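User: Show me an example of a complex going from sequences to structure tokens.

Assistant: Sure. Here are the input components:
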Amino acid sequence: MAKYKEIELPGDLYYDRENHIWAKLEDGKIRCGVDQFGQKAAGSVAYLKIKPKGGNAIKLKPFGTLEAGKYIGPLKSPVGGTILEVNQNVLDNPSLVNTDPYGAWMVLIEPSNLEEDLKDLVHGEENVQKWLEADYKKYEEEGLFAKE
Amino acid sequence: MPQILFSAPSIKRYETSEFKPEGNSFFAVSITGSACGLKCSHCLGKILSYMKATTTKESLYRFAKGLYSRGGKGLLVSGGSNRNGVVPMRPFLKTLEKIKREFNFKLVAHIGILDKETVAEIKESGIDRVMIDIVGSEDTLRDVCHQKREMADFEETLSILCKYELKVVPHIVIGLDFGKIKGEFNALKLVCKYPIYSLVLVGILPLLSTPMYGIKPPSPEEMKDVFIRARELFPDKPVMLGCTRPMGPHKIKTDIFALSAGLNGIAYPSEGIVSRARDMGYEPQFSEVCCSLYEP
């Protein structure tokens, strides 16, 4: 588990470094959501919209949108593929993104180019720790965090 | 072709397929951090916590200098009120004057109750716009904003600000009283007696962990009624739909009503609103600073 201040990023997950989307590899499929750092930067999440099951997930293109106190914008897919499942519970209760970021998965994707796509994600406790610390300091200095 | 302003200051990170600001242009700082003596029911200081805390003159200057080095263009300076409804802005005014001089920043101050001496100092500091929340119901002021002050006190501040010829931008929160329309039309009537620079309308956003979480906000149709009345009362002043309002499908509908009511600008427009504005014959303008800085 990478940890810095109040943020915890599980070391077994993969992360999109720009968009703070976590990705969990499950039998060749990818489950993803917003990581704890991302939810802290977004503030209270008020609304989520996610592409329906069967839709295309295009790497670094939106699979949905998120509206929160400090962020209004796309949720970008960490991998390309097809959306197999959408978490209706998080759509109905968007604040789960804040209260349980790793339980609040958003989509399960059948990847089309998994091996290549994973190369662009941060993985491994040491790498995640370094990235977390550097990004935290940047966000703090630039006033990008919502302090709950 | 009439113009309409779409603004997205970097107070929030924002991106749609129609408008993607570069970021780092215009931030909000709180000179009290998340501390507030009023803890209004819709906020509990949470909105302040979304701002960069600069609680000393040194930290304010340091943040402004860093922002300037990253290409920043200005600051919204806000803070919590004390129990008397006063945002303690005065000790920071000389620093703001210096920031303006050195970095050529656009500065917007969100204030509460002020006396003449402080208004004179604000004028001297060169602050570009002064924002003040106007509530049109004594009940709402007392029960939601926990103010000991009355509407007349806020009107007095508005009057002094205008007397000193500051560019005043009152804010009216639609649905502030737990989602009900209560003093909004009264607030419009109060404000229209003064030579304000522009008017900003925002909608209540029920925030998590506040007493307003889960309330039903005013419907887009109710918000539209306020937009239309504001447009009637301020035919020659910019009237903007500001940073905050309920989100999701509500926001899309509200933004469409703002267009049809002829408001002059929309902050953080919903996806599709820019193209809809074009279809309605507007010429969109884009800004990465606070909508109060709009110059028609």
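The lines above are the inputs; the final block is the predicted structure for all two components together. Chain A is about 25% helix and 35% strand.
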